[in-house]
Amino acid sequence: MVKPPVPRVQGALIIVGDFPTFDLSIPSSSCRTFPGDASWPTPDTWDALNASVDGRLIKTIPVGSPCHDPHYDQDACEDVKRNWHQTEMHISHPSSIMDAVFLNKSCDPFTPREYPCYIGSYVKYTVNVSEPMHVMKTVEFAREHNIRLVVKNTGHDYMGRSTGAGAISVWMHHLKETEWFERYSSPESSYTGPALKVQAGVQGAEVNAEATKHGHLIVAGECPTVGFAGGYIQGGGHSILSSVLGLAADHTLEFEVITTTGEFITASPSKNKDLYWALSGGGGGTYGIVWSVTVKAHPDMRITKARLFFSSEGTSRDRYWQGIAAYQRIVPPLLSIGAFLDATYNSYKFRLDPLIGPNVSQSTIRSMLSPFLRTLDTLGIQYVFNITEHETYIDAVDGYDNFDIMGYQLGGRLLPGSLFRSEKGLKEFMRTAWEIVEVGGAYVWDLGLKPSWKAGGYPDNAVHPEWREAERMYDTILFFDDEDPLTRIRDDQRRISVLFDEPLKKLSVAGGAYANEADPFAPDWKSAFYGEHYDRLLAVKDRWDPDQLLYGTISVGGDRWEVVEDGRLCRVGI
Questions:
Q1: pTM
Q2: Domain FAD-binding PCMH-type spans what residues (predicted)?
């Protein structure tokens, strides 16, 4: 088997501990096979799988392993700690993910070195995929041996779907091929025009770069490292272009998919159209394993970008919040001209970074911001403001990569535009925001966008219907330190679910939320992430994944399973 490419860890192969064993008296037929079970594959069986996938099977060595005895390496450990909050270390590792909550302190680099390095919540094995047969062989192996199956690309997933104790993973990250179509045309689609096909491992920045070569742009995410064809587009996919072009899922033309029954198929508006519909916004990692997606491309455009910062220093709490209220008043008119606004704030500082105006002049943005800036001046609030124009989309998003990972937990809901168009609604929103920030101690991510039916081109897809009325994705954030115990982290998540999400739910249409960036433990997750589409999506799931091999806690069909005490996955009610 190939040795896993552990980033920046040098020296001899590190041998790590395995899972502790538990006797929970759970019938084996109701659970996935787990390391230590009598039915767990023998080393010879794993060797046979490795041979069948061209030697691309990787046995997991957690990224934090050099921080623990008996193979402690101080320099390597310090390097892991230094890069723990950087995306590249986790993207390039076959089993690491970017959300420490779902690693459950397994072989954590910040626990004492004498703590055992259990693989724990990491997958047990990974197949570094380079061709469809590698996926097919892995799926066949998982079914034959009743092993949990995970799909991983970059591991950038706040919902915990990229890992699982005792699982085998298909790692799609190195699938980087793209194909440009000047004139895409297919009998399976009514669209004729430019398009881009990308394999599952292509990331947002790579999508942007390829489209720019041809004078076009793609509706892609703000974060440049996110895998485009995976959970991003399958979950809907918001973008700085969403107020003018809708969500990423609104532009899908076809998917190439490997099913859990071992078929390589195409899903489009006229071929396997139920699967196409579900993959276009109905949630990732549960219907099939996406090999590629083809999406519409659009002519590149000039973009105005503005940034504004102010703090509570030197002013009263009341005036600080008056400044935030003044910001809220200028968001609806900006959204009406196609803008995108990325604001974050807590009780001490406010950042609008950036405001994006696609095909909007600098003078127009200045004029629309002037009431807000005048109010800040009147309140005596000092601020920093700058505004620039960019010839291309890729120029405007350059530098939009200052994303910290790890160390925080999310909640949040989609809020409708109607809430902000009356004084009563605005007051209710501001009162809720004040309580979340000032009383609850949260940091909020207040994303202004308007991915309406019109903006998206009136698509027929599985995107949550509440996106079409939304003008905000309002997410609450609580930070934790790397050394914090799991008890504190779990208490904070309960606070997010109860103290923050419940009040926001009352402001929403029916409690809708973005299935990629919200509370992964929301008790109402079916309606929150899928709305009225859930039953139809479940029928698609049952058709294309009849053995229920694909699982996620908040993925469609996820409530049929539960993770029990030792980490194994078991059927509910059996």
A1: 0.93
A2: 118-300
